[in-house]
Amino acid sequence: MKIEKNTVVSVTYDLHASDSQNEKKFVEKTDSSNPLTFLFGSGNLIPAFEENLLGLSLGDKFQFDIASDLAYGPLDQDAIVALPLDTFVVDGNVDQELLSIGNLIPMMDENGNRIQGKVVEVKETEVLMDFNHQLAGKNLHFSGEVTEVRTATEDEMSHGHVHGPNGHHHDH
Q1: Most C-beta atoms within 10 A of its C-beta, which of 29, 81, 104, 166?
Q2: Strands 104-108, 114-122: pairing kind
Q3: Over 60: is that where the pLDDT of 167 sits?
Q4: Could you report the per-residue pLDDT of 62-114, keeping only the tens digit for each?
Q5: pLDDT digit string (tens) for 126-166?
Q6: CB within 8 A of 125, min separation 6: which ones?
Q7: Which fold has domain 7-72+136-159?
Q8: Burial of 143 (C-beta count, 10 Å sphere; 0-12/13-18/19+)
Q9: CB neighbours of 22 closer than 8 A, spacing ≥ 6?
């Protein structure tokens, strides 16, 4: 069976990312005990990722690159924000360990949405936080293998995601 719309696909892969200097860095790896399993064509993944898997079958190996503008987009300088240091005061003290450079801190935006910010710099009265996706401005390099392709169930298609061992579970 070939990968096409409304198939459930499992893949294992290694992901590396490179910046404008083309320096590749390891990002993540999935394996057979924890593959990426998804409903193909449901719009839950980067479109270019799915385009590169279209037509592959069980056991096929793949290797492809996705340019940053087709992945998580360019770095948005407006997403790098200076926040008052007192934003990080807990019980009257600033948690210096929390404010380690490179640390990811879960926060909320002005609309109550959960966002993650990376500590870029700590100054005397403010903290510079980067709210870009961690892969923004990066070209992605995938290499892996297709480990499952099956027809999606009616429930999976109507819900827009995979059910079962590597998918979503509903409490009944």
Answers
A1: 166
A2: antiparallel
A3: no
A4: 999 999 999 999 999 999 999 999 888 888 888 888 899 999 999 988 898 89
A5: 999 999 999 999 999 999 999 999 999 999 999 889 987 65
A6: 84, 85
A7: Chitinase A; domain 3 (3.10.50)
A8: middle
A9: none
Is residue 4 predicted with pLDDT exceeding 60?
yes
- Are 38 and 9 in contact by the 8 Å Cβ rule? The answer is yes
Distance CA 36, CA 29 (A): 10
The domain ranges of the chain are: 7-72+136-159, 77-130
According to CATH, the topology of domain 77-130 is: Thrombin, subunit H (2.40.10)
Tokens of 134: 């961690």
Q: Could you tell me which of 1, 50, 11 has the C-alpha nearest to residue 150? A: 1
Cα maximum dimension of the chain = 61
Task: Tell the residue number behind the tokens 């609309």, with chain if given.
Answer: 111
